[in-house]
Amino acid sequence: MPIYMFHPADLLIIPAALFAIWAQLKVKSTYQKYASIPTQRRITGFDIARWILQRENINNVDIEVTEGELTDHYDPISKKVRLSEPVYYGDSIASVGISAHELGHVIQHARSYAPMQVRQLIYPVSSLGSNLAFPLIILGILLTYFGIHAQWLINVGIYMFSLAVLFTVVTLPVEFNASKRAIKILSDGRLLTEEELDGVHAVLSAAALTYVAAAATAILQLIRLLIIFRGRE
Length: 233
Ligand SMILES: [Zn+2]
Fold this sequence. Notes:
about 230 residues, mainly alpha, 7 helices, about 70% helix, elongated, binds zinc ion
């Protein structure tokens, strides 16, 4: 008997992979489109970040520039917003939108937004889970192959993986809410035209797709594991 044989549930990976690839392409193309359109007022990502911090009365967060493209993030531990060079220095619709989104995370943190707190709380166990899940499952399969009772190891691996799945799911409200806050602030501030706001909306909706794809992929992978290993004893 081979160690692992093809199982029909393996096919679940195909739609997940296709969705993830499509989401990546959609993000890239939407980003590139709006990264080439400057805002009428020539506001940079840095300007927007500083403006939102002032507007929200947040004085303990730094804005830094970081390498790469689409590497923008907020680090709640060191309280730093790190904007990629094209976003920090750029005055495009994409730069302003992405910067405002990261500031959305800053405001979530400052206002103790519950899903963000849950996300931070489960992050250590979730990353441990995602690192250990497959090694444990593979070890379980190997031991079983050699006639050693190890279904329990596979089960522990699947529990570990579900922690990683939970993280991708909790990430969704955090990301959608950061974009919602960004668009509200930009709209209230009247710094952008209606068309520019629509562009920001398009960029942030595309970016959200990658998180939806990550969660969908993780959920389908979990379902696949449950179908394959459920009651194999
Ligand atoms: Zn985000």
